Amino acid sequence: MPIRIPDSLPARSVLEGENIFVMTEYRAMHQDIRPLNVLILNLMPTKIVTETQLLRKLSNTPLQIQVELLRTASYQSQHTDEDHLESFYTTFDQVKDRNFDGLIITGAPVEDLDFDQVDYWDELQEIMAWSTRHVHSTLHICWGAQAGLYFHHGIQKRKLEKKLFGVFEHRVLKPSSPLFRGFDDKFYAPHSRYTEVSREDVLAAPGLELVADSEEAGVFAVKTEDSRQFFIMGHPEYDADTLAREYRRDVDKGLEIAVPAHYFPGDDPSRPPVVRWRSAGQLLYTNFLNYYVYQTTPYDLKQI
To answer: Which of the following is catalytic: 68, 196, 237, 246?
Structure first.
């Protein structure tokens, strides 16, 4: 089944070029199917790249999904054309009276700041509080996961000695969890961050379950016992070249940055990386949508 997006969204041509079935709004209006309504709060500066990565994962499922893109009103993006934002993004005031089957909150490159120093922190808190009443299940990614764990569960992030940067091996701690149905015992995922949450803090928090971690990268996946909130510390949606582009960007800026771990063959940046996380990343998003949104969300969104 297709993903349903606005006719002229830039991601459409990219996804169609990859033979992904994309349904335009016009065609979708003529089908008597209630799609899943998923809202994406995109906090990343490179919004088009991030929305394309996420739409690629959401589209490869047997479900029809109506995606809406949300941006913060309290902070103006410096890296995305305003015409694109005006055409395809909405603000919280425009959706706060509605209900959604799912919400995805992305990461953001603001890890060095305390949460209350982030320009849009007040607005993000309002959105996260709203999600507990208006969203059936919410997926938080990377910094978005750290922000969610802090806001909802009081878990503070802590700074790492150096950037966690590369592709790391992980283990499933709860094989019975539908989130990891179809996963191998060991799987890989990219990370790119300067902060973390501790395993001890997660295990001590009431109502939380640690369901996957890594010896090198630490906590990876946390969920609430009621499956209404998920917190993913890595970036399973990353493209093959995302870490390479981040690495070369920092090198060009003269920043001190290590070669991404376990990414380039022989740690040689001149060689193309080998992707080891694509299938696990797809399964994670598919399982989240299927088992924690589609299978349990009410048909009438007013009942959320």
So the answer is: 237
Q: What is the mean pLDDT of residues 177-199?
A: 96
Is 237 noted as a catalytic residue in this protein? Answer: yes
Q: Half-sphere exposure of 151 toward its Cβ, with a 13 Å CA cutoff?
A: 23
- The domain defined by 3-160+169-239+277-303 carries CATH number 3.40.50.720: no
Question: For the whole model, what pTM was predicted?
Answer: 0.88
Dihedrals phi, psi of 74, to nearest 5 degrees: -85, -5
- Residue ranges of domains in the chain: 3-160+169-239+277-303, 241-274
What is the per-residue pLDDT across 145-163, written as a single tens digit (0 to 9) for each?
Answer: 999 999 999 999 999 999 9
- Dihedral angle sign, alpha carbons of residues 133, 149, 177, 263: positive
Amino acid at 1: M
Give the model confidence (pLDDT) of 251-267 as tens digits. Answer: 999 988 999 999 999 99
- Among the options 51, 142, 152, 196, which is catalytic? 142
How much is the CA Rg of the chain, to the nearest whole Å? 18
The question of whether 142 is a catalytic residue gets the answer yes
